[in-house]
UniProtKB/TrEMBL annotation, chain A:
This is ABC transporter permease. InterPro entries: ABC_thiamin-permease_prd. It comes from Winogradskya consettensis. Keywords: Membrane, Transmembrane, Transmembrane helix. The chain crosses the membrane at residues 12-32, 52-68, 80-101, 121-142, 154-175.
TrEMBL record, chain B:
It holds the Pfam family CbiQ. The keyword Oxidoreductase does not apply. It is found in: Membrane. InterPro entries: ABC/ECF_trnsptr_transmembrane, ECF_transporter_component. It comes from Winogradskya consettensis. Keywords: Cell membrane, Membrane, Transmembrane, Transmembrane helix. Its main location: membrane. It is a multi-pass membrane protein. It comes from the Bacteria. The chain crosses the membrane at residues 12-29, 35-53, 60-78, 98-120, 141-159, 179-196, 230-253. This is ABC transporter. One of its GO terms (cellular component) is plasma membrane.
Length: 197, 258, 468
């Protein structure tokens, strides 16, 4: 065991758990498509509705940040999630990788702004908002440039940020609190905030 | 695995080529650039040893996205210049709208195809090896991601068991979308608990085999970055540059910013 | 080797291990015994150097001469790579073995465990027993001086377990030290020459030759749940004759998973379904439990014109209780008590009734003290008892159980079998998929063997073709 124990050094468990979060959300997305296959058409034909899905897609970035509590956690996890969806044959091809990088960067920036010291609800909401913002900016330029600015591009971006703040931000915070009592976070500070048993 | 000449190239070179080819396409909204790019991609396909049917199967969900683009363009197009073709209800469909819609649809396919081609011909292990050996990615992170990737088949069958177990417990959603959403959330939570528990055990097992020993790692499998890989990158850059040049010279080029 | 060793996990009040003094000489083969919760696994982890200081607090000292290697219970979470050979090479890469030496050591290690496939074989296409032998090869390739085995065969079917034990016996050099934790003592005995008994929080309470230990401590160990050889298990004869059919399957098949099968279960009987891995036992349990639609054939149950897989979930849970192989699959709440209240509440029972049913089941399955615990934190035996209790909460007349006694210690085993015998005598019909011979002997009224006439074709489930 390496004992070079600085606060920011990633342990094996940090790396594996961050990767597993990315993989699990890949599978959750796969399941979403199966469960909601019938309604997917509605999502595709009314793209603003897709911003709801966006919240779930952006969860790994915030969740990994809250659990791992180390610089790079959000960035790494969202990038791996994107890479995995590409490897699984996502129809969007290689562009998901720069997209994942940009999205991870948003949440990473939020935790960095707080000097990697706060992991409470406001931090989670900020991370959700910023990762939503980075995703919205990417889409604003890369995918939505042909659409009307005030009727579509701006509302779409706002919806993305709101959905990400609620689902990825609030949702990840609630998820971390729900995961702690199951014992799976025992090797993380996030899991030790519960009472002794 | 695939037998194509290009399929055997270094995974990092292939991924780099896919990004090199896709990124410039994102920068423009005209229909000419993606049309040329699609032509090049379809010509390159056989060299990756891929059949058109296989790629079509992977890419078909894009058709849904294309349909979405058409609807959104009808409703929200920014530019309604050109002569009027039709005016269903309050919406005016012009030649300008049609041109931009065509550009977007072609672009979705042209941007996605390189990635689809590369990932269909790349083994995840080889990709991780090449990322570490040729792109200087940190080995612990690449191998950690690879180890987690191996869990996917396990987790997909786990999802099915979790769903069946919920039915056995007397829980189903019927047609109620809210109940369906709740059931989905509960299943996803259980999946995450199981995945994280497995992840913890996996990390311990990896440490038991010296994963964090601090010794310099050696490589059992060697990935080489050869002149042919450099050539792939150069040719890709030239091809994508050519497509852009033609679109600029013909006056169609329409950058996303500006 | 160990002096006054103790370890307390982060977030726990009680010490997992405490006051352990133990000296093991090079080349000794030691069986580590003790009831659940005596810290055997923690001790092995400490010897393997796998208790990082950030996960708990330690006292005393651990000194290990020679490189340790450890094999865990679950093969799924020990394999790292997609291809078998790469997985064995993983440890060698980590420890900086020269590239030229890696592949000879890989093939040597694979030979020693009797691995029969090429090195490009996908690891997830292997059976559990094969995966466990592959994991063992990954450890042997590192040439450990101390081999630690933590219930290495608890997750395997008997033939797979037998092959793993053979591989261990063959792989041991005369100077390799072995420490094994195993509930099923009879199976570990041929491998060991010394036994050590731990007590929760009490350190070592007995140490010596296995025969001597069992002569002195046999009854106490059996009482604590250890499978001590020579202690008979209770047998339960049905008190009544089976009455009406609860469920009947006619020529039922599932594509690629279940060859045609016909069987029926009546109230007041236990039907055991046996057969090798891959014969479709679990699939059959899902079909009989109304969870999977058969591809052809017909399942009729409870005189309902509709087959069970078409019933609404609530009706299904009132009639058929399914117990899955992994108890965690069935947990849907965050408290043990809520887990039991859920079924009756969905049936529309009054709050008072719901509480009465839940409390009743808690005490019947000795879970009362855990009523407020999170289901995911239970031990293996507790989780199994809870999963059976959840199926009983809606009072179904038919129970379908997949490997109910799998990996259980002796105490839980006896409790489960006693409970199932009582349920049968109350008029429930029970269908149990099992490869536990003792279970069949103790409880089954009839046995349906799914062993196919011809050997099973091997299914290749690999997603990515081999390369290299």
């Amino acid at each position: 065991m390496n004992t070079g124990n600085t606060k920011y050094r990633w342990r094996t468990i940090d790396i594996v758990i961050a990767s597993v979060i990315a993989v699990a959300f890949g599978v959750i997305f796969w399941a979403w498509n199966i469960v909601w296959g019938a309604t997917e058409g509605a999502f595709a034909f009314f793209p603003p509705a897709q911003t709801l899905l966006y919240g779930i897609w952006l969860m790994p970035a915030v969740l990994a940040g809250l659990i791992i509590r180390k610089p790079g956690a959000s960035l790494y996890t969202e990038t791996v999630a994107a890479l995995i969806s590409a490897l699984l044959g996502a129809q969007w091809g290689a562009m998901v990788i720069p997209q994942g990088l940009v999205q991870g960067l948003g949440a990473e920036l939020a935790f960095a702004l707080l000097a990697y010291r706060s992991w409470k609800l406001p931090a989670a909401l900020l991370a959700g908002a910023l990762t939503g913002l980075s995703a919205a900016l990417f889409d604003f330029f890369a995918w939505n440039a042909s659409y009307a600015l005030w009727d579509y591009r701006i509302p779409y971006a706002l919806l993305t940020v709101v959905s990400s703040t609620i689902i990825a931000g609030l949702g990840s915070w609630a998820l971390t609190r729900a995961l702690a009592p199951t014992g799976v976070l025992d090797r993380f500070a996030a899991g030790r905030d519960r009472a002794l048993v | 695995m695939s037998t194509g000449v290009l399929a055997r190239r270094n995974p990092v070179a292939k991924l780099g080529a896919a990004l090199l080819f896709s990124l410039p396409l994102v920068a423009t909204l005209d229909p000419v650039t993606p049309a040329l790019a699609l032509l090049i991609e379809l010509l390159a396909l056989p060299f990756f040893g891929l059949r058109y049917a296989v790629v079509a199967r992977r890419a078909w969900p894009l058709a849904l996205a294309a349909a979405g683009i058409l609807v959104t363009m009808t409703l929200f197009a920014a530019d309604r210049s050109g002569s009027v073709l039709a005016s269903p209800g309050p919406f005016v469909i012009t030649t300008g709208v049609l041109r931009d819609a065509l550009g977007l649809v072609l672009r979705v396919f042209a941007v996605a195809l390189p990635g689809i081609i590369v990932f269909a011909t790349t083994d995840p292990t080889d990709l991780a090896d090449a990322l570490v050996q040729n792109a200087k990615a940190p080995a612990r992170f690449a191998i950690g991601a690879l180890a987690a990737f191996r869990m996917i088949p396990l987790l997909t069958s786990e999802w099915q068991m979790l769903s069946l177990a919920r039915r056995a417990r007397g829980i189903d959603a019927g047609r109620n979308p809210l109940a369906k959403l709740h059931l989905f959330g509960s299943t996803a939570f259980a999946l995450l608990v199981g995945a994280l528990r497995r992840g913890g055990r996996l990390a311990t097992a990896m440490d038991a085999r010296g994963f964090d020993s601090g010794l310099p790692r050696t490589f059992a499998r060697i990935q080489k970055f050869s002149p042919a890989d450099v050539a792939l990158l150069v040719v890709t850059a030239l091809a994508s540059g050519a497509a852009l040049t033609i679109s600029i010279l013909t006056g169609f080029f329409n950058p996303i910013i500006g | 080797m160990l002096r006054g060793f103790g370890w307390r996990h982060a977030g726990r009040r009680n010490w997992a291990v405490r006051g352990v003094d133990l000296h093991i000489r090079s080349g000794e083969r030691v069986l580590l015994l003790g009831p659940s919760g005596s810290g055997k696994s923690t001790l092995l982890a400490a010897l393997a150097g796998l208790l990082p200081e950030d996960s708990g607090e330690s006292e005393g000292t651990v000194t290990v001469g020679g490189r340790p290697g450890i094999l865990f219970q679950d093969p799924q979470t020990q394999l790292v790579m997609a291809r078998s050979g790469d997985d064995v090479a993983f440890g060698l890469e980590n420890t900086g073995v020269r590239a030229a030496d890696i592949w000879p050591r890989v093939s040597d290690a694979l030979d020693r465990v009797g691995f029969a496939y090429p090195i490009t074989r996908q690891t997830h296409a292997l059976s559990g027993g094969e995966q466990q032998r592959l994991a063992l090869a990954g450890i042997l390739a590192l040439r450990p001086g101390l081999l630690l085995l933590d219930e290495p065969t608890a997750n395997l079917d008997p033939p797979g377990a037998e092959l793993v034990r053979e591989a261990i016996a063959k792989a041991l050099d005369p100077d390799t030290t072995l420490i094994i934790v195993e509930h099923r003592v009879a199976e570990a005995l041929p491998l060991v020459d010394r036994a050590v008994v731990l007590e929760p929080g009490g350190g070592v309470i007995a140490d010596g030759a296995p025969e001597v230990i069992f002569a002195g401590h046999g009854p106490a160990l059996a009482e604590q749940g250890v499978w001590v050889p020579g202690y008979p298990l209770p047998r339960f004869q049905a008190v009544s004759t089976p009455a009406d059919h609860l469920v009947r399957a006619k020529h039922v098949t599932v594509r690629d998973r279940l060859p045609p099968i016909s069987l029926a279960v009546s109230s007041g009987e236990v039907l055991a379904v046996t057969g090798p891995n891959g014969a479709g036992k679990s699939t059959m349990a899902l079909v009989m439990g109304g969870l999977l639609a058969p591809a052809s054939g017909r399942v009729t149950a409870f005189d309902d014109p509709k087959p069970p897989h078409r019933w609404r979930a609530r009706l299904l849970a009132e009639r058929i209780g399914s117990v899955f192989q992994s108890p965690e699959h069935q947990f849907v709440t965050s408290r043990v008590h809520d887990e039991l209240a859920l079924g009756p509440r969905r049936q529309g029972r009054s709050p008072a009734e719901v509480t009465r049913i839940a409390d009743d089941l808690l005490s019947r399955l000795r879970l009362t003290s855990l009523a407020g615990a999170n289901p995911h934190t239970l031990s293996g035996g507790e989780a199994r008892r809870l999963s059976v209790a959840t199926a009983l909460a809606t009072a179904p007349r038919l129970l379908v159980l997949d490997e109910p006694t799998f990996g259980q210690d002796r105490s839980t085993w006896i409790e489960l079998v006693t409970l199932l015998a009582t349920l049968r005598d109350e008029g429930h019909g029970i269908l149990a998929v099992t490869h536990d011979d003792a279970f069949v002997t103790s409880l089954a009224d009839r046995v349906h063997d799914l062993t196919p006439a011809e050997p099973l074709p091997r299914r290749n489930t690999s997603r990515f073709g081999p390369s290299t």
